[in-house]
Every structure is written in structure tokens, then in C-alpha cells.
Hints:
This protein is α/β, with parallel strands linked by helices. Helix content is about 25%, strand content about 15%.
Amino acid sequence: MEPVAVGLGDATLTASGSPLRPGILLDRDGTIIVDHGYVGSINRVEFITGASKAIARFNLAEDGAHIDLFAYCPYHPAGVIEAFTRTSQDRKPRPGMAKAAQAALNLDLSASWVVGDQHEDIGLAEAVGASAVYVGADRCERPGVWSFPSLAAAAPFILERIAV
Ligand SMILES: [Mg+2]
């Protein structure tokens, strides 16, 4: 449901001299972990086979994997807690979380990728001008979207195409 960002190597420089780099914005539920619905506790976290190894490959590291930034949206227009019941620019497919990752990690979103298992993830990619990968048992038939059965299956495709 919530994307996370993995920043990759340097690319070009901004006017301030900070490096811009491509990133991979990863949905969590159904992309990194099995979607059991609301997570709620660590006992409900089950990694999808190959997901952590795919993230390690994105880090260009031999072992281990890390996420550079975790982002989430606590708001939902149909929420049950009044303080969190509202629309938000952070709710996918709106671009708020991707823009926050862009600012925090100096991402070039037009050179970045969004990977997810819902049409909202693909909408996020379109909203920020990133490339889109859909993961899951079915396919996304939208033009310009690549479909793979899993993050692990998509990783080599993304790594071949991302500018590092
Ligand atoms: Mg998902």
C-alpha cells in the first residue's frame, strides 16, 4: 500500500550541486510483503520470495538490503478515525509521497521507477513521470507498463534500464 524509495547511484547535478539520482519507489503490500490486509503487527509481515534479494540488487550490494526512505499515508477519505479521515496528496495515485522522496533523496523522478501491484501504483508513476512496473499474477494492459509476476522477476529488467 505504501511505497518506499530506494535511491541509486549518482547521475546529474542540480543547480545547488546536489546529485540527482534515479530511484525505485516500491509499494509494500503485494510487492515486498504478502498482502494480508492491515499489517498491525510484525507477526503479519511475510516477505514475498525473492523480494529482499531484489532490493539488495537495487542497492548494488552483494548482501543485505536497505530502504533509504519509508513513506506512508495515514489518511484515508473513508477512514474510521476522525483525525485521519480526509483526502491527502500522499494517498496514491496522488504524488505526495513520491515528491517527498524526491526532496529527501534528490531523486530524478523522470529517471525513476514505481513498482506495485495495484492500479494506484501505476497512476503514481504516471503522476510523477516515472516508469511503471506492475507485479502480480495478472497483467496490466495499460500502454507503457511492464508486467512481471514478482519484484524478483522485475529486478533484472529494471536494473538493465535504470541510469546509474
Ligand atoms: Mg500493494
